[in-house]
Amino acid sequence: MKSIQTMEELSALYGEASPAALKKETDRLTEDYAAFIRIARFMALTTVGPEGTDCSPRGDKGPVAHIHDDKTLLIPDRRGNNRIDSLRNILRDPRVSLMFLIPGSSTIIRVNGKAFLTADQAVLDGLAEAGKPPRSAIVVTIDAVFFQCSRALIRSKLWDGIEAVVDLPSAGQILANMTDGAVGGEEYDRAWPKRAVESLW
């Protein structure tokens, strides 16, 4: 099986990203992106270590990640199996990626950044659930945040039959708010369902 070897080969195969794909990325939380994170109760956390990569599911009763400010997220480390693969990796390599999923929503929010661990009691007490603070928390400094194209969710039919629990900003609204209306808006949202179906495969 022949492998792709160079960036030039890859670029020739895929071409350029669309303006919307580039404009949706920012280095801090906008109010639209914060709205998703405030209600997201599930995410995947990816870390990197000397032994390789690790991807860990994270879930919580309330928000799975708490917004400290527009550049910082706090993720309580709730009870688990004590493998602590993610935590070991963060100690040795701070790079992390987060992917937030909300049932019924076709918008996935992704965050890339750098993390450290804290056992600061004031922080942990602020993250307590049912009177129980976590043993540690992951503090993530945001380098990039953006929404993921929804084709993967449409193809997988992951949320078929599941209604979104709250009214969240649309992709068009996020783009319009980030670009002062230059990209996105109502027309983007109106055209997206047809464009998605025509380009699913």
Stated plainly, the CATH topology is called: Pnp Oxidase, Chain A
Order of helices and strands: HHHEEEEHEEHEHHH
If classified by CATH, what would the architecture be? Answer: Roll
Largest sheet: 7 strands, antiparallel
First and last CA, distance: 22 Å
Can you describe what's shown?
By secondary structure, the protein is an alpha+beta fold. The chain has one domain: Roll (Pnp Oxidase, Chain A), CATH 2.30.110.10. Helices cover 31% and strands 27% of the residues. The chain has eight helices and seven strands, in the order αααββββαββαβααα. Strands 2-1-5-6-7-4-3 form a seven-stranded antiparallel sheet, covered by helices on one side. The radius of gyration is 18 Å and the shape is globular. The two termini are 22 Å apart. The model has no long low-confidence stretch (mean pLDDT 94).
